[in-house]
Amino acid sequence: MRLIEYAKQHPPEGRVERHHIVPRSMGGSNDKDNLVRLSPRLHFVAHWMLWKAFQNAKMANAFWTMACCNGERINSKTYDTVRAVASKAIADAKRGKTTSDRHKAIISAMMAGKVVSEETKKRISEAKKGKKFSPEHIAKLSVTKIGRKASEETKAKMSAAKKGKTPNNFGKVYKMKKPMPLELRLKLGEQRRGRVMSEESSQKKSLAMKGRSLSREHHEKIKSVWSDPEKRAQHSQRMKEVLAMKKMITPPVSPQNTPIPWNQS
């Protein structure tokens, strides 16, 4: 247990391996409380200690699998080195490769009819919490989705799966950490210019808005904003800045001869 406590207090850096505190063969579960992240070398030592403590067939098999490589005995340091080289080789071999349509079809056929349990969903969710994609990874994901369009069948399945379910963001209020720069607003506006909403989308939007009415609080809020001369002046100034940016002329200035920022409230 000292090794486990040490690992919890000193999380490993670099390569890590999951280790069951109570082994699966002894009734241990995959729950988060029964898992600890160890370096490959400490993982090797942990299984050696389990074998020394219990000396049964299952502990022997687990330790033997880690301790033997092509019939030759190895120690924890060698295991750590071999694992590092093997991991790098696998990553290098997969880099730049794409899954063929045939392989995708095989995977799809294997997964057909399988239902992910709520416990598994929870584990996946917990594992992903706090993780952030790097800018490079985000850019790669974006490139892979360019030009891809969901089939009508896929759209129907997605729609059916969402029916009757409350959206995850229902009732949440999002606030931007920083105001969106004027240049980005103009860029987004240019991208949307010329787009025409289809008749089907217009009908869906109309049906979704039917029966909805603004609350009295919302009405009062809008009224208070537009009845304030200072805020109306600020809105007018921002609109002038937008026009100035579009015409590539010098933005107007305030009476104090200082530019009024777009995000001024």
Can you characterise this structure?
By secondary structure, the chain is mostly helical. Among the domains are: 2-94, no CATH class; 219-265, no CATH class. Helix content is 57%, strand content 5%. It is built from 12 helices and 4 strands. It has helices at 2-9, 40-54, 57-67, 76-94, 101-111, 118-128, 135-145, 152-162, 182-192, 199-209, 216-227, 229-247; strands spanning 17-20, 35-38, 68-69, 72-73. The strands form 2 sheets. The protein has a two-stranded antiparallel sheet with strand order 1-2. It has a two-stranded antiparallel sheet with strand order 3-4. The two termini are 57 Å apart. The model is unreliable at 259-265 (pLDDT under 50).
Helical coverage, percent range: 55-70%
Instruction: Tell me the overall shape.
Output: elongated
Write down the secondary-structure element order. HEEHHEEHHHHHHHHH
The low-pLDDT segments are 259-265
Using only C-alpha atoms, the radius of gyration works out to 29 Å
Please work out how many helical segments DSSP would assign: 12
Largest sheet: 2 strands, antiparallel
What portion of residues belong to β-strands?
Answer: under 5%
Q: Number of DSSP strands? A: 4
Overall mean confidence score, pLDDT? 79
Distance between termini? 57 Å
Judged by helices, strands and strand pairing, the structural class is mainly alpha
Largest beta sheet: strand ordering: 1-2
Describe, in short, the structure shown.
This protein is 57% helix and 5% strand.
